[in-house]
Design goal:
Blueprint (H helix, E strand, L loop, with lengths): L1 H21 L7 H23 L4 H27 L5 H31 L1
Helix pairs in contact: 1-2, 1-4, 2-3, 3-4
């Protein structure tokens, strides 16, 4: 359960940081901004789905894998923002490091579940 809290806490921290940046996105990038906002909410939603469905291994693994996809999309959106010079190199690096950290935690959970399954 501690790992779930870390993932949720780090995700919220990352999303709050990104939301502060979204205020400064130009009007012409409205689609990118909306996609980032939607993706952020879906990340939190997937974490809660995972926590609630902890009893069903197949279902919560699906949510963890979906979470990895959403994190990858967020990384892509932020790369796009950086390439379009909407965010600075420093801000892009900070966000990317947060995303990598969250992704490592999710992969760690998936890996530990596989090891526990093999032991049984």
């Amino acid at each position: 359960m501690n790992e779930n809290f870390k993932i949720l806490n780090n995700s919220k921290k990352t999303i709050n940081y990104i939301n502060k940046l979204l205020v400064n996105y130009p009007k012409k990038e409205v689609i990118l901004k909306q996609n980032i906002e939607r993706n952020n909410y879906e990340i939190i939603q997937l974490i809660y789905y995972y926590v609630v469905n902890k009893d069903s291994k197949r279902i919560y693994e699906k949510y963890l894998k979906d979470l990895i996809v959403k994190l990858s999309m967020l990384d892509y959106y932020m790369l796009n923002s950086y390439q379009n010079k909407i965010i600075s190199t420093k801000k892009y690096n900070v966000i990317s490091n947060y995303i990598i950290e969250i992704r490592k935690m999710v992969y760690g959970i998936l890996k530990s579940e596989k090891v526990q399954e093999e032991v049984r």
